[in-house]
Amino acid sequence: MEFDRHRELLEELIRVSADMARLPFDDEFERTHEVITHFGSLKRAFKLIRKVTGADPWDSLRQSRIDDLRVYLALARFPKRPSFVNLPLSMQRDIKEFFGSYKQACESADILLFESGNSELVDAACQRSKLGRLTSNALYVHRSAVSSLEPILRVFEGCANAYIGEVEDANIVKLHRFSGKVSYLACPKFDQHPHPPVRRTIKLSLRNRFIQCIDHSENKNPLLLDRKERMVESDHPWFERFARFSMQEAQHGLLDDDQDMLSALQWHAKLEEAGLMIRGNRLRYQEGVKRKRLPPRQDYMDPRFGKTAITAPATNLEEPSDSLHDATPDEAIDGDCEDVVEQKENRSAELPTRSKRFGIGKEIGYAVYVHRDYEAVLGASVEWAKRHLPNHY
After folding, report:
1. How far apart are CA 166 and CA 140, in angstroms?
2. In this predicted model, what pLDDT tens digit does every residue of 18-38 receive, in sequence order?
3. At what angle do helices 7-20 and 32-39 cross, to 10 degrees?
4. What is the pTM for the complete model shown?
5. Could you read off the pLDDT of 256-293 as tens digits, one per residue?
6. Three-state SS for 212?
7. What are 259-263's contacts with CB under 8 Å, separation 24+?
């Protein structure tokens, strides 16, 4: 078979073409001359590749790149869209390939921009979204996953971001389905707490540009997040841990897809009624409560798992130690580690200790502090986090 005879060359062409979502120009592929020698042109070689690999993956890549360009050009209107000649050469080539001209690309981007101001279209996109925790009036998404939303939702959030800038401690984005508002929520213990409380909210109305800042740090009954695995992408370091806990709650009848997120007191009452308590990132029966026969786990499996069983994350990090092991159920849901320590009598303060998980660094609460020269010992989680840092960071 012709593909097999030139497999190594064609696989390299596949890699470059997949990165660009299009066939490279002659000067964008170092082995162009070899391809022309064997196949006559890059187009003929690519035609063979599509025949062997199938057209669907390439059509998907193409559409994804078109969406990225539309979002970029839509948000580039703030403050002023650059002229075509000032765009990077690779982007100029993308625009000609996917839109035909810069004018048509800008017109397509403007349509998307105006659609993001239509609450009916925003609501429909929120309901279609396979990513995010949908409630009766909003879609909650982790900030690192916003770029994977539909174009209209990315532009909707991008307009808010362009107006108020980066909200440094906000890690959850709330896209309001009907009111034209975008909220940025600060949940400091998102990774560690099974139901992290919302500590601060910055809310912007795109219709009248009114900004509201709300501090929940003194609120004794804050909103608690649930189904965290829906708010992140499947490559998030703790995705499977989040999903396991949500599956456990769903098996016990604590979660309802049609129900909005609950407050701390509401969750406490729900756990008490079910005879359960939270220990670390697991549910436990309260003392004296009889165990129940639970439905199959597959009935509550996140669609992104497919039909396979849930396994531990492929990372060299272990889960944070359960420093809330002795906490009461409401403390385990909402209490900070420091608060729990202060409430315990006759407990002496302890200095940070060397991390047992990595053999280096100081453990303070759920965090591990290391010198930047040794960040590699923390493994995949650090690399994942670095990929989601702002470009200017």
Report:
1. 17
2. 999 999 999 999 999 999 999
3. 120
4. 0.75
5. 878 899 999 999 999 999 999 999 889 999 988 888 77
6. strand
7. 260/135, 260/136, 261/133, 261/135, 261/140, 261/223, 261/224, 261/225, 261/226, 262/223, 262/224, 262/226, 263/221, 263/222, 263/223, 263/224
